[in-house]
Amino acid sequence: xxxxxxxxxxxxxxxxxxxxxxxxxxxxxxxxxxxxxxxxxxxxxxxxxxxxxxxxxxxxxxxxx
Length: 65
Known about the structure:
- By secondary structure, the chain is an all-alpha fold.
- 74% of the residues lie in helices and 0% in strands.
- It has one helix spanning 2-49.
- It is rod-shaped.
- It starts with a helix and ends in a 16-residue tail after the last helix.
């Protein structure tokens, strides 16, 4: 009986450690996802406003012209 309790405690300890590591991974991925969503929103805003592409009359001709 004592051996079974020791084995269960060992398994619970392992699961607690694993759960903590998985929570850290999820937190890091969530943070990264928030960053990517923010960048995507910024890029969509730039596309919608037309700031990504200059008008042809605003372009400076290359030096060989």
